[in-house]
Input
Amino acid sequence: MFVKHLTLASFRNYETAEVAFEPGINLLVGVNGQGKTNLVEAVRYLSSLNSHRVSGYLPLIKNREPSAIIRAMVSSEARDVYLELELNREGKNKARVNKADLPRVRDIVGIIQSVTFAPEDIDIVRKDPTNRRAFIDELVVQYRPRMAGVYGDYERVLKQRNALLKSARATKTTGSALSTLDAWDASLVQYGTEIISARIGLINMLQPHLFAAYQKIATSNNEPGMLYRSSLVGEKVLTGFDDDNEDESLEFLTDSDRESIAALFTQRLAAVRPKELERGLTLVGPQRDDLVLMLGDLPAKGYASHGETWSYALALRLASVDLLRTETKTGDPVLILDDVFAELDSGRRLRLAELVADNEQVLITAAVAEDVPEILNATRFSVKQAVVERV
Ligand SMILES: Nc1ncnc2c1ncn2[C@@H]1O[C@H](COP(=O)(O)OP(=O)(O)OP(=O)(O)O)[C@@H](O)[C@H]1O
Ligand SMILES: [Mg+2]
Output
């Protein structure tokens, strides 16, 4: 698929912008701070309601404006789809497809399939589990857009359950007054199981693509591998599990079978209940799990070199492109490469260029055009003070 046309209004530093993209390579060039990242961020946000720079949406609205608009005409399976997202400082956000309002904004997720690679992605490899969960969850939703609703439901249940645990702790509630907790537990297990199962299923699918991508871009011959470390298994959670720190004692879950995950989840919730009441917090579930990235026999985090970390992050994204290309019917996802060429040596630049050159559409940003290999020079735009012009 590819984005044919993008319209922005009051988005980031853009008052308005109209950009006619081409299939194939689109290179956006301009000095720092002009709006290159903002432009591709708009595409990513429309695709996944995710941004590589913020978690909320308010920073996306132009300073002092009440609302922002992102519109795009997208060609998918040889049909044109018209998407629109309205972000409001006050009042609800709105999403429209072919001019019809969607019941929920999250229904827009996955209509544009996209994968973004940006320098921030090295955090997936070297920082805390939040980054890895965000990586896998964004891909889960791109692969199966229906999951956006499940994540929404899970978050809602988790919030309510945490509120209940907190007030139970404050009032020292015991016994029958806790029966409402049982009702929440059932929903927590239901949605949480779907999330964990989807993550494990996707990790298993992604593995061969990751292996292939890493071999193409890295010089070392260590094998990358992914393991799902879950709060549903392992012992430590029962004794002194704290916050979101990686817990080395947790064990791995490899089977995406829902029944067995649900059974584990239910057992584990019962076992940690006293602890949860003591802490006033839900202690098990997908929000406490991690995706362990291995390189050879060692975890990449804490062991991989800087170059290996980069290669790993890039391989995760290229593997995502491969997976979406081969496992869905909508063709290649739109690939966004934000500011990555400046960070690579010339050998890696060329290898990356060769790997992405044939993707149906690639949106590339660079401050210095010369950093981007010649073969990625098809369609070029200049971005200067929030004005985009084809050159
Ligand atoms: N909500 C907003 N309202 C107004 N301006 C904003 C908003 N958010 C970001 N900006 C401005 O957008 C500019 C950054 O744009 P962007 O990140 O797209 O730059 P860039 O062209 O990618 O630069 P670089 O080459 O350094 O990556 C900054 O000057 C920032 O102040
Ligand atoms: Mg930028």
Observations:
- Residues 36-37, 338-339, 365 surround magnesium ion (ligand 2) (CB under 6 Å).
- The longest strand covers residues 2-11.
